[in-house]
Specification:
The structure is a homodimer of 303-residue chains. Chain A is α/β, with parallel strands linked by helices and 303 residues long. Chain A has one domain: UDP-N-acetylmuramoyl-L-alanine:D-glutamate ligase (3-Layer(aba) Sandwich), CATH 3.40.1190. Helices cover 35% and strands 24% of the residues of chain A. Chain A is built from 10 helices and 13 strands. In chain A, helix 9 packs across helix 10.
Chain lengths: 303, 303
């Protein structure tokens, strides 16, 4: 229970520019690995592998390390950092991409610093599935591997994506991605399809409607925590996975009870993310705040 | 616990013509009171007040009475029965109305047969809020009153609707209606607004995403039961309310435990409705089938 296990995340660190009904924020800290690592850091030590350009602000780097995340794997390359601009003005549940500049992320070839290969919990955030497969080859022995992806890879690297998912323990997708990958419009059929690809678990994230965990032995559903203040949903899915994987690493035992609880902790971490732009909400909370919300969330769904 | 209390529903009995990806069904039994009463009949005796035309098929009448629903309050008028034609071909979560023929329903002036005024549990299904208020004047003493409404009345009879909701114990609306009536795009704010109108409880139905129960003392959320076969969502909301009110009438005690359980029973009854056109699924199930699904549903959401 108390044996700590390190978490490794491979993904993106980016500069996001976000428009939402709550305002406009320019070049704020973003990227799947940034969101995931900060969320998971509340549960267990986290190592991060990503790439940024030489323009990446030192303040953002300090923000990430202030959560205890190890950045030895954050490679700095000549060039510009990955930038994404999105808007939630029309629909708070679905980002409209205004601009994507891959920059140095286009050439990302993840490199594991010494020691990182010992991490027992690995999260392959949304990157090219061929890179995800390439990274997995660095690991041997028993690991708990989670992965995420997106519509772009479902469409353009379908067979690599399926090959990658087969090698993982758990796949995290949102409902649209799950339906797209499975070709099923029905959620239950889509969930079963994800399991048929090989992973032991599949989590379908439904935004403000919660999440569903599929496994061979059980299905578990949770609604999302109700909030009055939703300012920026960016990163909710990655902080969800961060809370989920973080809790499993902390407890270090994969069983039904912990997996179900992980779905709650993931939901709780995602609920903080959307309350402010970037990872700003996490700068103002601590383990106590998180435990309090976990308790409130349990009350919302307990009989 | 075993003291049975009668339920009274005032609403519509209609002939529906439905197109969905699962097929096409013409002039099948529909209407809020038909759906509600058949659902509630699995829990407690139900009295129905509605109006139909002289063309209403005897087979449909027999179908309703086969569930033990009392039809003394089903007035037959010269003219045609209320007809509604809808399509779910574009969106399974939202009916597109193709045609509405109010016919005799346009002149509906609900009349309570002797004895009906003793019903302790009353459900004012979606009709003109002025008629809902008119009916309530027939009742004195302590009652548990539920109500439903729709976008048409929110728009065109807003103050009557609010006056009516104030007189009820619980209001059932879907998420779009709750947002429209409250003027809030946020679900938590919308729920609080509904309570501010006066009822002790408010239920917001979210279709395939479940339901939320709001009260001053607690909020309770459930996802919807996962199904592989969804054929026709018509009537899901009314059967939800039927299961909810039916369970409360059966237990005859309004407390947090029963109210939370009622949300589950409502969800269970709605889950059967959508599996077939009209009320057809209820012709093939019994209390055991329902209890089995209630158990399965609890497993889906229990920690």
């Amino acid at each position: 229970m108390t044996a700590f296990n390190e978490i490794l995340v491979i993904g993106s660190v980016a500069l996001d520019t976000i428009k939402s009904p709550a305002g406009y924020s320019k070049e704020i800290l973003g990227g799947s690995a940034a969101y995931f690592s900060i969320s998971a850091s509340f549960f267990a030590p986290v190592n991060l592998v990503a790439t940024v350009g030489s323009d990446f602000p030192d303040a953002h780097r300090k923000t990430i390390t202030s959560f205890g995340v190890d950045l030895k794997g954050l490679e700095v390359k000549d060039g510009l950092t990955f930038r994404w601009e999105g808007s939630y003005v029309k629909d708070m549940n679905c980002a409209e991409t205004i601009e994507t500049q891959l920059n140095v992320f286009a050439e990302f070839k993840p490199c594991l610093p010494k020691g990182y290969e010992k991490s027992k919990y690995i999260f392959l955030a949304n990157i090219d599935p061929d890179l995800q497969i390439f990274i997995l080859k660095r690991f041997s022995g028993k690991r708990f591997i989670g992965c995420d992806s997106m519509n772009h890879w479902i469409k353009n690297k379908n067979s690599s994506l399926k090959e990658m998912i087969k090698k993982t323990s758990i796949v995290f997708l949102n409902d649209m991605e799950a339906k797209m990958l499975s070709g099923e419009s029905n959620m239950l059929k889509a969930g079963k399809y994800l399991l048929s690809l090989g992973p032991k678990f599949a989590v379908v994230k439904r935004g403000e409607y919660g999440a569903i965990l599929f496994s061979k032995d059980f299905i578990f559903m949770v609604p999302a925590y109700l909030l009055e203040d939703v300012r920026d949903p960016t990163g909710a899915g990655d902080t969800f996975a961060g809370g989920f994987m973080g809790y499993l690493a902390k407890t270090n035992k994969i069983n039904e009870k912990n997996i179900k609880n992980a779905l709650l902790w993931g939901s709780v971490m995602a609920s903080f993310t959307v309350q402010d732009f970037s990872i700003n909400r996490f700068l103002k909370i601590n383990k106590k705040t998180i435990e309090k919300r976990y308790g409130d969330f349990k009350k919302l769904i307990a009989m």
